[in-house]
Specification:
Helix content: 55-70%
Strand order of the largest sheet: 3-2-1-6-5-4
Radius of gyration: 34 Å
Strand content: under 5%
Shape: globular
Number of strands: 6
Largest sheet: 6 strands, antiparallel
Length: 751
């Protein structure tokens, strides 16, 4: 053993420190691993194998994710070099603003089609210019994909059959190929009847005939196939193979047509633009198109005013404007952020859309700090939106985590959301509850959501407790029942049950204004200061005995009071779009309550004990059945509360498929938080960030929203199989206590 110890090198201090602190960062590293492993997908999809382009897309996507979630971005300050190509081109070829707009549209089309493709299409047009008119070329191009799909030999082979089918009424022909197409056999009697109506059918063997009828059925009509045959005959005459490059070019040319024009007209126009740009010394069409759009934005924002000479405007007006104003070059559809008359290193842009002449209702739209040639930007409305999106994820994730604590896998959060929302919206709009004064109706609506979700969650709990029926199966089935029930209640028109008769789309009536949760902007700064002071004072009073011996203990309560006041003031300032609502505090209260319930109360202890070891809990005298029902009811209540908050603060009515997927996302949030209520806030904020950033990522990086779903899936995978994360990041193996805690996730499966 001594020799073995001597052969084992001592770990260096950094490794020892990492071994101590890294286990608590497993969820964070799982997220980081998911972000890293997604990069190759961007390289091979968006980058098309080009590593440099793919990495640039990844950087753009993740930068957009940060901006779309927490509202932070770093962008360049605009400079004349950003439009250098347009400036040079406009000075060589005099451009008016009208010419500029037309050139921008043409350059955008050229980039979309691709200069190389335009050249190839133009060569095909020139090759057959003496044989085909533009209309004839489009006619061939329209049929090429169908010819390739059906097969040229099949079309030639069924020529006689097509002639016979098109000779009879189209409805009768459709009955014939609908009846016999797709069949493998045909009786002699049916074959005779078919030949009687279409004599040409006698020329084919039975299998061949049925195959051709199946192909015609797939195209929808014999006339469509006849038109394919006509264009195939033209192609045969010109020696064009259906799968040749020329045929594919014709098909692509046809897709470019606009209005009454032909695809050839578009290609010839783009060919002229390409030649014009090359003459002007433009070699990068994509960058030039971007610069043209930027110059157009300058005119729209009054940065440039000389509409008769774009070159003169860029040369004389742009430098002076940039010297007198803060102008940030933003990616996307709005490329300029302008703070007129400001050249300071920092500032705030105000949203003046409410009442332009009244500055008292202006809200901070953008906060910026200049950093040399760049600007650090903060968009409060993005962070506000992310927090609002995260609230239902946090509460629903808390619902699933509570089930995990009891050893139950509650997959029914989706259905419990729907039932809680259904009860809540009824309380919110029904005249039956008009007697409730003021804010009490909003409280009643939240209580209704709790009750509706609790009842729907208690059903699988009771089935589990008294019949042994598995909660996973029961909650899945109850999800379908809840969704269909809500669909029926809202869609029903004979009679109207919960549907709003005046709504154009199926939905319930809107909730009463008193049932809506107040916005945080209604709380003044003085109230937040008072809340912070009261919290600090209450904490100091509770610890008055300890403070007599050590006054330094007063620091923590005071810091917490100041933090609460500062957080409240910040949230009120952050509420720039009127989205942040009292549901935020309900969410914090739910997190605190569940944490207190599980860690500080006897029922919570029993729930955890039943989840860890039902046999030991029973032996200790705990009522296992009651605790299973209680855990599922509480879990459902939390999910129903999430639905009630969403209706009372964001949507204000309920539609079919209202919460689509939210209950299932809650499972991922609970896993990410490691079923710890205190971690649920951060896990829900992360999930809300991913969802909020989807649109910005798609626009900036030009990639599918499915990428975000991939990231979410990888996060779940790495959380569930944390051994991968531990191995990659050199994290020590989980302790026996951690393994037992994670095993609670699966105890509901009968282990």
């Amino acid at each position: 053993m001594a020799d073995a110890a001597q052969r084992t090198p001592a770990r260096n201090p950094i490794a020892r420190a990492w071994g101590r602190i890294s286990p608590r960062f497993v969820p964070v590293l799982a997220v980081l691993s998911a972000l890293i492993i997604t990069i190759p997908f961007m390289v091979f999809t968006g980058g098309r194998g080009d590593i440099g382009r793919g990495l640039n897309i990844a950087f753009t996507a993740y930068s957009a994710a940060i901006e779309g979630s927490i509202g932070i971005a770093i962008n360049r300050m605009l400079s004349p070099n950003d439009v250098a190509d347009v400036t040079r081109y406009a000075e060589a070829v005099t451009l008016t603003q009208r010419d500029l707009r037309g050139l921008a549209r043409s350059a955008t089309d050229l980039v979309a089609v691709g200069a190389a493709n335009v050249e190839r299409y133009a060569a095909t047009i020139d090759q057959y210019a003496d044989s085909l008119t533009p209309e004839q070329l489009d006619a061939i191009g329209e049929r090429v994909p169908a010819i390739q799909e059906v097969g040229a030999e099949n079309i030639r082979g069924m020529a006689a059959l097509i002639e016979g089918l098109t000779a009879i009424p189209s409805g009768e022909a459709k009955i014939l190929f609908d009846t016999y197409g797709g069949q493998s056999l045909i009786t002699d009697e049916d074959l005779a009847a078919l030949i009687e109506r279409v004599p040409q059918a006698a020329e084919y063997e039975q299998g061949e005939l049925l195959n051709y009828l199946t192909l015609i059925k797939g195209r929808g009509s014999a006339v469509s196939v006849r038109r394919m045959a006509e264009q195939l005959a033209v192609m045969d005459e010109l020696g064009i193979e259906p799968n040749s490059e020329a045929a594919n070019n014709m098909a692509a040319i046809f897709t470019l047509r606009r209005g009454s024009g032909t695809g050839s007209d578009v290609v010839n126009s783009l060919r002229g633009i390409d030649a014009q740009l090359q003459t002007g010394g433009i070699t990068n069409e994509e960058d030039f198109s971007r610069q043209l759009s930027l110059v157009n934005a300058m005119y729209e924002n009054d940065v440039l005013t000389n509409t008769d000479d774009v070159g003169a405007a860029l040369r004389d007006e742009l430098p002076a404007f940039l010297a007198a104003n803060t102008v940030v070059y933003r990616p996307g559809n709005q490329p300029l952020m302008i703070d007129a008359g400001k050249t300071d290193s920092s500032g705030i842009l105000w949203d003046t859309k409410n009442t332009p002449d009244d500055t008292t209702d202006d809200r901070p739209d953008t906060v910026y700090v200049r950093l040399g040639d760049s600007a650090f930007l903060f968009f409060p409305y993005q962070l506000e939106r992310m927090i609002v999106r995260a609230i239902p994820f946090i509460i629903a994730g808390l619902a699933v985590a509570l089930g995990f604590k009891a050893g139950l896998f509650n997959i029914g959060a989706e259905g419990q959301l729907y039932l809680g929302g259904l009860v809540a919206v009824f309380i919110g709009y029904s005249p039956v509850f008009d007697f409730l004064p003021g804010f009490t109706r909003a409280i009643a609506m939240l209580l209704g959501g709790l009750i509706g979700g609790a009842l729907w969650g208690a059903i699988p709990g009771a089935l589990k407790a008294y019949t042994g029926a598995h909660e996973v199966i029961n909650t899945i089935m109850l999800n379908f029942i809840a969704l269909r029930l809500v669909d029926y209640m809202i869609n029903s028109t004979t009679p109207y049950i919960m549907r709003d008769p005046t709504a154009s789309n199926p939905s319930t009536p809107p909730v009463h204004p008193d049932a809506r949760l107040p916005q945080l902007e209604t709380i003044g700064i003085e109230w937040w200061l008072l809340v912070g002071a009261l919290f600090a004072g209450f904490s100091l009073y509770n610890h008055r005995e300890q403070l007599r011996d050590n006054l330094r203990l007063a620091v923590r309560p005071i810091v917490r009071g100041v933090t609460i006041a500062a957080l409240g003031i910040f949230l009120g300032w952050l509420n720039v779009r009127g989205g942040l609502h009292f549901g935020f505090f309900v969410m914090l209260g739910a997190v605190w309550f569940i944490d207190w319930l599980l860690e500080r109360t006897t029922p919570g202890f029993e729930i955890r004990t039943v989840g860890s070891n039902p046999s030991a809990a029973k032996y200790a005298g705990m009522n296992v059945k009651w605790n299973i029902i209680l855990a599922m009811a509480l879990s459902g209540a939390l999910a129903g509360l999430a639905g009630a908050i969403e209706i009372g603060s964001v949507q204000f009515n309920m539609k079919p498929a209202f919460f689509a997927g939210l209950g299932f996302d809650a499972i991922a949030v609970a896993l990410l938080a490691r079923k710890n209520p205190r971690n649920m806030v951060w896990a829900g904020l992360l999930w809300g960030a991913l969802v909020s950033a989807q649109g910005v990522i798609q626009i900036r990086a030009d990639i599918s929203n499915d990428l975000v779903r991939m990231i979410q899936a990888f996060i779940i995978m790495f959380i569930a199989a944390d051994a991968i994360v531990r191995y990659v990041w050199r994290i020590p193996e989980a302790t026996e206590e951690e393994k037992r805690a994670s095993a609670t996730f699966t105890s509901g499966w009968g282990s």
